[in-house]
Design a protein that fits this description.
Elements: E1 47-49, E2 62-64, E3 73-78, E4 88-93, E5 105-107, E6 110-112, E7 118-119, E8 124-132, E9 143-152, E10 164-169, E11 172-179, E12 185-186, E13 200-203, E14 212-218, E15 232-241, E16 254-261, E17 263-274, E18 277-286, E19 293-306, E20 312-322, H1 331-338
Antiparallel strand pairs: 1-20, 2-6, 3-4, 4-20, 5-19, 6-19, 7-19, 8-16, 8-20, 9-10, 9-19, 10-11, 11-14, 12-15, 13-15, 15-18, 16-17, 17-18
């Protein structure tokens, strides 16, 4: 029997090289503070952390957040499993939740600092290498390895999910995009008898806030989208496959490049590259515009799961962020991404 993995288990109801070589430096006007308050924007900053020291690099804009959920986690700058240079960062979570349900989480996440955040809706490029310890978990559960979110104002109604996330589903790597402005259409109708129309994103059922998740890329696997929690479609999120395939999580290091531009009004765009292969472009109503949301986007990475037994461990290396593709990737790759990338939303 194939288990259907719930999209929001229990949550809706619960209301190194280049570290100091200019590429890594935070760019700010002399005497001015880094952007941290309303209206300020860190998009033009170029950030890099190869995790080569005993703490996060001054030019990386990263920190390990200290809160209750992170008490289940730990981090270490280590030299045994490394993508490049002499070190990488190891992030792991252990069992902490007394009851294994969706209301308790275990995290070991590295966050962007508030003073480097980008205004929501601005395009920005990221690169990051990731490796997961084996054996790879395969049980139906909530596992997230990286996520981009919109700031949430304290006291806001609802629990907004990431606009983009890397997840572990069915033992394989998937990428999901969330929206609260798109439309959901079920399959099993005359218009969509068995599957989504070409270009439409497979979608999960909306929650009470109108938010739903879409599946935009997945490593090869035996289960169809409907069998892993995506029984419908969204015509407001257009997927353009670019020929690449997300790799298996037990294949070693995976080198990611992302362009991320939220656009709940319809002008959003996400590009995903893995191991030099352009995987997918996603366009349309990406992200959220509900009540209680702030004006910045933030990124965090590391293991995040609902309460579970055992230890879950990942390694990360070579974090980069910048306003241009060439700030995070080779000129050759960026030329490929810049060739023939007419929007699927433009006639």
């Amino acid at each position: 029997m194939i288990a259907t993995i719930p999209l929001y288990p229990g949550r809706r109801s619960a209301l190194k090289r280049l570290a100091l070589c200019g590429f890594a430096l935070l760019v700010a006007a002399p005497g001015s503070a880094l952007p941290a308050s309303a209206g300020q924007d860190g998009r033009d900053l170029v950030l890099f952390d190869g995790f080569e020291g005993t703490d996060f690099a001054p030019g990386g804009g990263l920190y390990y957040k200290d809160n209750h959920e992170q008490e289940a986690g730990s981090y270490a700058f280590e030299s045994e499993i490394v993508r490049s240079g002499k070190q990488a960062i190891e992030l792991s979570v252990r069992s902490q939740c007394k009851k294994q349900n969706g209301l308790c989480s275990e995290r070991a996440e590295v966050w962007e600092k508030p003073e480097v955040l980008v205004l929501y809706g601005e395009p920005v490029w990221y690169a990051l290498s990731m490796r997961m310890a084996t054996p790879i978990p395969t049980e139906p559960h909530r596992y997230v390895m990286a996520q981009w979110k919109r700031e949430i104002i304290p006291g806001a109604h609802g629990d907004y999910s990431p606009l983009l996330a890397l997840r572990l589903v069915d033992g394989r790597l998937v990428a999901t995009v969330d929206t609260d402005t798109g439309t959901f259409q079920p399959t099993g109708t005359a218009e969509r008898p068995t599957a989504c129309r070409p270009g439409e994103a497979p979608a999960g059922t909306p929650d009470e806030f109108g938010q739903f998740r879409t599946l935009v890329a997945a490593a090869p696997g035996e289960h169809a989208p409907a069998q892993i929690g995506f029984p419908g479609c969204s015509p407001d999120l257009v997927i353009t496959p670019r020929g690449g395939t997300l790799p298996a999580l037990d294949s070693g290091w995976i080198d990611f490049v992302f362009q991320v531009k939220p656009g709940p009004g319809g002008d959003g765009r996400i590009d995903i590259v893995a191991n030099g292969q352009w995987i997918v472009t996603v366009e349309g109503k990406i992200g959220h515009e509900g009540d209680g949301l702030g004006e910045h986007m933030y990124f965090k990475f590391g293991p995040y799961r609902a309460g579970q037994d055992g230890i879950w461990k990942l390694w990360y290396d070579d974090f980069r962020r910048g306003p241009a593709c060439t700030d995070v990737a080779s000129a050759e790759l960026c030329a490929t991404l810049g060739a023939g990338v007419k929007s699927a939303l433009t006639p």
